[in-house]
Design a protein that fits this description.
By secondary structure, the chain is an alpha/beta fold. The chain has helices spanning 107-120, 199-210, 225-236, and strands at residues 12-16, 23-24, 37-41, 46-47, 61-63, 71-72, 86-88, 93-94, 99-101, 130-133, 161-167, 170-176, 186-187. Helix content is 16%, strand content 20%. β9, α1 and β10 (130-133) form a beta-alpha-beta unit. The longest helix is centred in the middle third of the chain and has 14 residues, at 107-120.
Length: 238
């Protein structure tokens, strides 16, 4: 990426699905005052710490998914990424897209960090963000072969993925299966007032969110293995 030094007025940099491209994103610092959009998507040999770009004054979009970039979203403060509108970070970043939690109880802390970052930057989108429970976690379990035939395994799975949810301007998160069978939403913002101009929109979107909750009604986090087996047997058992 050293060639970038010869492009001092570059505003947008896009590279996708390139396994031959190598380099460290700190090489972009020669373009600190001009870059507005940076995309290295599916470039597995791009490395560095995403915070090396935190003080770029014009940066609006940063997409580093499926790179070898690392870092920690907890390092983002009020002075970081002040103009950012879109952020996609790889799973190697603590709190990045696809981040694997070691315990179910780890998730709320990362979600609160994401929420705090968004509140400081209302226009910021965490597009496609999700997290998931690691299979190495002591909280993880699979479908019991003795209780369910193999034909059920593809669609019957515990809700070990976590996604952000929005209804109007209200933000929350919920656990769900990989096939989008969700638990209840854990809301992070208060409900807008009935006199608010966005209240009707909020209610419409809230109803769509709530009507999708079926198997995991009443659960705000993944059920225990015993609870999961009971629920699944009630619905799918012979």
């Amino acid at each position: 990426m050293e060639i970038l030094a010869g492009l001092p007025l570059l505003k947008e940099l896009f590279c996708a699905s390139n396994e031959f491209l190598t380099g460290n994103i700190d090489s972009l610092r020669v373009l600190k005052d001009t870059l507005e959009k940076v995309t290295f998507r599916d470039c597995p040999h791009i490395e560095g710490n995403f915070m090396d770009l935190a003080d770029f004054p014009r940066l609006k979009e940063l997409n580093l998914r499926e790179t070898y970039v690392t870092g920690d979203i907890r390092d983002i403060n009020k002075q970081s990424f002040q103009t950012l509108e879109l952020l996609l970070l790889p799973s190697g970043v603590y709190g990045g897209t696809g981040h694997e939690f070691q315990r179910i109880s780890d998730a709320p802390g990362i979600i609160r960090t994401l929420h705090s970052i968004k509140r400081q930057r209302p226009n910021l989108l965490f597009k496609y963000w999700y997290g998931k429970l690691s299979k190495d976690s002591p909280d993880w379990y699979g479908v019991d072969d003795e209780l369910f035939d193999e034909e059920y395994h593809e669609f019957l799975a515990p809700p070990f993925y976590i996604h952000l949810v929005e209804a109007g301007s209200r933000v929350g998160y919920r656990w769900q299966t990989n096939d989008d069978m969700p638990c209840e939403v854990n809301w992070l913002d208060p409900e807008p007032g009935r006199e608010s101009s966005e209240y009707e929109k909020y209610i419409r979107e809230l109803r769509k969110i709530e009507e999708r909750v079926y198997l995991y009604q009443g659960f705000h986090e993944p059920p225990s293995e015993e609870e999961f087996n009971r629920l699944a047997l009630e619905v799918y058992g012979d």
